[in-house]
What does this fold into?
Amino acid sequence: MSFQQQYSRYVQIFEEYSKGYFNLQKAEHQKQHASQVHQISQVLGISADISQIHIHKKASLQLWESMEYSFFGGGKRFRPVLSLALTEALGANLNRILPFALAIEMIHTYSLIHDDLPCMDDDNVRRGRPTSHKVYGEAGALLAGDALLTESFRVLSQRNIEPEVSRQLIDLLATSSGTYGMISGQLTDLAITKTEANLEDLILTHKNKTSALIEAAVVGPGFFVNQNVNLQIFGLLVGLSFQIADDLLDYEAKKEKNNFVHILGLNEAQKLLDVLTQKSVEFIKNHINQSEFLVELVHFNKSRKL
It folds into this structure.
């Protein structure tokens, strides 16, 4: 199987699982409406007709629609693919990692929705389509992001995962996406746009803003197997490589200050990406079995065009 075929296989497995999850939750949500109306009738003694609950039902459906609009709006699915590939390389069943892969992608999607808001980057287009707030309004986009963030933890709490593993995954997700990870990095990123950052500031910013979730995607699969390898090292290498590759792709279009190309220059940024890629390959070959796809994946990141 070629690299592209294998990548597409992982994406297809993830997409089918994710669509099944969303469809199930939407169906369960409708059942909950009837249950809530019944409870109101019983407890408060108010006669309520489920067929007359229009506004609440419409708002609920629009919330799920807005969540799906961004979640299924395209993208490389790099983080889920990384988790699935590493899980398989470590000898674990892919079905076990899928809830965690879904949770990470929900977090990633919510962060993009919020990044696009006028109070942040104020972007009107993402992946060739209007951003969430251009379609559903600022409040609708904000709530869609909030819902995806909250739902990500619900995914992990209700799936069939051993309690101790579930606890570890929830802690990992919260740490990597919260004040010790992505949120901290995003705030620092906003701060450094107002001044001239140095390389150390930039690396620490993106270790949190971009790399933290990628590190989580790498570390998570290790909880399902008995392994003593420090997967966080590999996650950091891949995470920083991913950000530098993004900066190399974007520098012509955006001319942003305070990215790796701006601080290092085009040639030195490319050299740093080469070094991190080589270190990633060495880590894979030294510590992970069945590593051919993972090696190709880090090279794919280095040479990707989007």
In short: The mean pLDDT is 89.
